[in-house]
Amino acid sequence: MRAQFVLSEIGVGLRRNLTMTFAVIVSVALSLALFGGALLMREQVSVMKDYWYDKVNVSIFLCSKNDATTAPKCTKGAVTGEQKKQIQTDLDKMDIVDTVHHETSDEAFKHYKERYGDSPIASTITPDQMPESFRVKLKDPEKYKVVATAFAGRDGVESVQDQRNILQNLFDLMNGMNIAALCVMALMLVIALMLIVNTVRVSAFSRRRETGIMRLVGASSFYIQMPFIMEAAFAGLIGGVVACGMLLLGRYFLIDNGLALADKMELVNFIGWDAVLAKLPLVIAIGLLMPAVAAFLALRKYLRV
Fold it and tell me: How far is residue 144's CA from residue 57's CA, in Å, rounded to a whole number?
């Protein structure tokens, strides 16, 4: 097969269907940008979970004198020294526990003042109103229920709370956004495939005379189909490159500059450039192969002369 002939046919096809080719490029670019964005969003959620779950604790709040009349689980009165000692001993025996810190009422009051000292209600809070607690760091944060089952309902324990619940709503929101992006990506992908098939069919119809002559002189089906497949692959490749550019610009303007989320949200561990660059070859490969396969399947029927 002569490369010059194939390239000339590709150029002819692109010029004849310039508008539809442009539509294919835009559709492929948008769908692949959404696909890459969804992959990056999923990785961002995973990175944030690893970062924050490693920092959150399981809090075992102990009964105080004030809880004796207000908390149903503290009807037997405030926690005793013996009960606190037993809880500490049982925590130290658990293999899943990494560290344990006993926070006194005074320490809890100090931390409260540091975080919410400017709120109107802060002036009415006294140290004796703050509950004692054990702050437990687990080796595997997913095994929170082991601690909850062991200590919830025990005498002297008011409640057992997993701080992961505070972050779960954020992660659920991000996962929801990720699913929405995948749904839009799937819709755009269907539109792109329909445009690719229609573009190939129009191109094949406009050159049916040439393909008929090639068939009569003994040209193989693959030889006849190759220019059309290459046209679709070329348009998809351009769309993939554009999608990569959109992902790079999105990372640059959203996190580093523009909105500069990295500076405004210092507590968030954002994914780095290496994560973005790792997705680009996949985006380009899909942009190249998807139109080529779609064109090949469409041509199996349309080039029978």
Answer: 9
Q: How far apart are CA 198 and CA 20, in angstroms?
A: 9
Can you read off the two tokens belonging to residue 183?
A: 């749904």
Beta bridge partners of 58: 136, 162
Secondary structure element (H or E) that encloses residue 160, with its range: strand 157-162
CB atoms under 10 Å from CB of 58, counted, come to 27
Side chain identity, residue 296: F
Q: Which residues of 139-154 are buried (b: 16+ CB within 10 A; e: fewer)?
A: eebeebebbbebbeeb
| Single-letter residue type at 257 | N
The span from the CA of 2 to the CA of 13, in Å, is 17
Distance, in Å, from the CA atom of 228 to the CA atom of 144, rounded to the nearest integer, reads 58
- Tokens in use for 200? 């190939």
What CA–CA distance (Å, rounded) separates 41 from 9? 40
pLDDT by 10s per residue, the chain, length 305: 455 655 665 666 666 667 777 888 888 888 888 888 888 888 887 777 777 766 667 888 888 877 666 677 787 778 888 888 898 888 888 888 888 888 888 888 887 777 666 666 666 777 777 888 888 888 877 777 888 888 888 888 888 887 777 667 777 777 787 788 788 888 878 888 888 888 777 777 766 676 666 666 666 666 677 777 888 888 889 999 999 999 999 888 888 886 667 777 766 778 888 889 999 999 999 999 988 888 888 777 655 54
